[in-house]
Amino acid sequence: MRLSTVILPVRRWSEGGREVWQRAEELGFHAAYTYDHLSWRSFRDQTWFGALPTLTAAAAATSRLRLGTLVTSPNFRHPVTLAKELISLDDISGGRFTLGIGAGGNGFDATALGQEPWSPRERADRFGEFVPLLDRLLTEDVVSYEGKHYSAHEVRNIPGCVQRPRLPFAVAATGPRGLKLAAKHGQAWVTTGDPKVSNGGGSSADSLEAVRGQCERLGKACAEIGRDAGELEKIMLSGFTPDRPLDSVDAFVDFAGNHAALGFDELVLHWPIADSFFAADLDVFERIATEGLAQLGTSYGS
Q1: Helix pair 79-92, 120-139: axis angle to 10 deg
Q2: Phi-psi region of 145 (alpha: psi -120 to 50; beta: other; left: phi over 0)
Q3: What pLDDT was estimated at residue 123?
Q4: Where does the pLDDT of residue 300 fall: very low under 50, low under 70, confident under 90, or very high at 90 and above?
Q5: Measured between alpha carbons, how far is residue 123 from residues 3, 110, 120, 167 in Å?
Q6: Beta-carbon count within 10 A of 116 CB
Q7: To which H or E segment does residue 32 belong?
């Protein structure tokens, strides 16, 4: 199992922003991701920088750490312009970039460009066009496409990605259409658990059972297209289930062990932010980063 982190873009680069990403590399995290939003929840009226410029700066400030978004969505992105930026970022990072991608929701991004919020069906429809078109744009030198929601006219993306055939997609999905996209186009699948469990006051055991069901449905989606589900890495973005893995190293080991048993390859922890939803003890967080997986191996006999 690999351990990664999410660093929200809430710090000026000159006032601690650079140091956090460098510290993530020093601590040995596999990857450091950030959210690709224009603003997000309680941070809406606070500092919040753009994801792709932040990741570009992080690429220049680090050398081994993988970088990525968790997640980018169609809410304010277009596949044509996004592809050009991703190819550039993959080049600048030396092939260390992973695109986390999801259908988006009804947060602030959904109406920032002046549009009405899309219905769940329209979000799924757009996502169903967005992912395959982006796949083509990142793998083909010249692309033309005319769809219901997106178009591309003789778009050039030369020289393409450093990673071949393109940078990896980590597709966030829980519904049937999204899981099919993950099965077909993803190199990884991302979940945050089942919001119905957390919002409904469910337990950690309830959450595990719900995630088990998601894994089973992903397996069926892979089987339908003849793909081995074991080829698709499984990523758990923590912080949205009833669990509290950052309370202590022991709490993390229990959380990680339970999800390792479900076949997860990577756990992602939020870098602590004081006075926020993601508040946690930084010393405990760093102990988890440096000791947690070793203790997991001892506790679970791996």
Answers
A1: 50
A2: beta
A3: 96
A4: low
A5: 30, 10, 5, 24
A6: 8
A7: strand 31-34
